[in-house]
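Async update (no meeting this week)

Hi team, since we skipped the sync, here's where things stand on the single-chain job. The sequence we agreed to prioritize is pasted below, unchanged from the tracker. I ran it this morning and attached the output directly underneath so nobody has to dig for it. Comments welcome in thread, and please keep replies under the output.
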Amino acid sequence: MSSNERYELGFFSLGGSKNRYLGIWFKKTTPFTVIWVANRATPLKDRFGMVKLGNLGNMSLVDGGGTVVWSSNSSASRTIIKPIAKLWSSGNLVIMDEDSRDEKNNIWQSFDYPGDTIVSGMKLGKNFVTGREIYLTSWKNRDDPSPGGYAVRWVMVKDKYPQGYLWKNSVKLTRFGPYNGEEFSGSTHYKSNTKDIMVLNQEDMYIQFMQNSTVFAIMYKLTLDGKVNISHLLIYNHQWIHDMVLPKDKCDEYGLCGPYENCVSLTPPYCECLKGFQQTESSSDNRTRRCQRSRPLDCGPREEFIKFSMMKLPDTQNAVYNNSMSLQECELACKNNCSCTAYANPNITEGAVGCLLWFGDLIDIRVYKETGLDFYVKLAASELLYTNSKFHITKRVIIVTLWISAALAGLIFGVYIWTRRAKRSDVETEGRPNTVLDKDNNSSSKKENIELPLFSLSQIYRATNNFSIENKLGEGGFGPVYKGMLEGQEVAVKRLSTSSRQGVDEFVNEVICIAKLQHRNLVKLFGYCNEENETILIYEYMPNRSLDSFIFDDTRKSELDWSQRFHIIYGIARGLLYLHQDSRLRVIHRDLKAGNILLDHQMRPKISDFGLARMFREHENEANTKRVVGTLGYISPEYAVTGQFSIKSDIFSFGVIILEIVSGQKNRCFVDEDRQPDSLVCHAWRLYTENKSLDIVDKCLRNSCSILEVMRSIHVGLLCVQHRPEDRPDAQSVIDMLGGDDGSLPFPQKPGFFIYTSEITSNTVLPSFNDLTLSQVYGR
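Output:
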């Protein structure tokens, strides 16, 4: 047997079978996990197998009778060689010259002959010189590793763009692709410290799976039932953690919808024609339906293109690829070819060029929220004229409706707003930032900044089934939230409650604010409704709801492993960096908390609820107010006591969230070992000073977390909750520290909690402790 720190090579048997196999497996893992089998179709029938290595570098496996049951069929091109077989730390069994020190200088390697598993360093593809194809095949059953009925193969043809398929015998089940420069856009790829590399040249076309981590290992396994399971192995405790399975839903089924149809992923899924196309046949069976052009192409000079965004690009089997054409050149090439039906640049990397031209039907299309791409479909000039005229008419109707709604809203809320402003003028300081979000701005200024679709109340009723209780997702400070279906897309509908402490100011503030913000770690606002005394916001639907519903729930917290929690911390930091630095105007959220961090279908965090946010211009850094808003337990000490807020106020809140994510406990509801009321921040500080920081880690994480990442996260969290705002890091520094090592981090000072409790004067009116958003005036 040969082994290294991760892998072992030797003989093994499966289940109750007496058959013996030569293979490679992960060392000391539960369950026993084989990544490669030499003689998968020709097992040894006894225990007398022997491995031989010939003088020219050919490895063979012989049974007790001397019969060769498997051979590498390899030999060196040189006549003088000292061949050795070596199992590298990557899990690659290599036959090479004894004097070689490089894994790449080999005569033969097991990575070129995968079975049902891919690990880092392996590749799938085709060599055009030898004609040899590298692909995955499933096992026949749990006790028999011989090739089964499922395969993952990449279609590699010159001048074609590579994409992968999951096959059952000769039938395509799922399409992965095409490659977008970072991953395959037709699949949800695991991206933790991984990087897929695609090679396209005259000799080879292949995708290589690369991963750089000393903490865990990634594995892709084709299962017996035709699924691709993605898992990672925690090296320090040899435990496997399941991450995801592909295909994910029914819309991943190849050809579920017909040509020019988009598959909408709902329960059940349904197919809809692309804009510019109409259905010609109706049937309960999606496969018998077909979409055709509303107006046929005439190959005239006025034919143009309509853009579709965030899409899984159509099957490229009838497309041609040119890797040197710009998007403009690609458009011109498609326009000048009467047979061309669509074009796209499949590469999303910055500055990348490339042109895909489709000829014929567009097949296997769907919308993706994260990995989708833009592509452009050719339409007749008459169809574009009709579509554009409908768009302009609709746009005028929306504009007129918006102004009428604004006028009605002004009449309804006029007295209320005037009264509220009159009261506020006595308490607001003069040091507020000059911004479109200030409540002193007039209504026309607000209207100019509302750049979102206005939906009618009847549309909202239909989308939510008249606010059916079955569709209710929950309720927050603004009011109840309902799940709905609006224009073919799942949405979350937030309805202002009559008993809500928030009102029209927060509503207008959020509409104006979030309409200007676009980032993958911020929740997307699709539109709003302000009709018949109803105040409604429409957001993208987050299937996993809020972060607090996981980390504070004893029955669900184990669903978030440490890897996911760390990525959530990092994602929130990226969102804050955008708000504080990268957006056109600096935005202070002012109510950052676990309940306002929503999780999408891949557990990616998105900051939500901008009703209390404020915008600063470039030269402005802080402001004062006597109207302290936010949620107790997350509010920074300088904001609670003096009314001063800045980007460092959000950083304080973020530090609390980090500690809550690590510990799985609320800051304000924390009790220590002696059952005495305390705060999580205070407790974390005490443990840090005693070198016992790991004691705060959530119990469900202690056997599966990265110690270095956890320690770094706690350290960064304590830096964020320091008393003095100037001592706290900014968002960019937080991101740099999360990605660095503990030795480079500064020593945190005592958190604000300690100083805050000792410096509050007797005249300070302290709020009562509750979970509601605080929006009141405090006397000082």
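Quick observations from my side:
The chain has 13 helices and 45 strands.
Residues 189-193, 388-394, 422-449, 755-780 have pLDDT under 50 and may be disordered.
Reply here if anything looks off.
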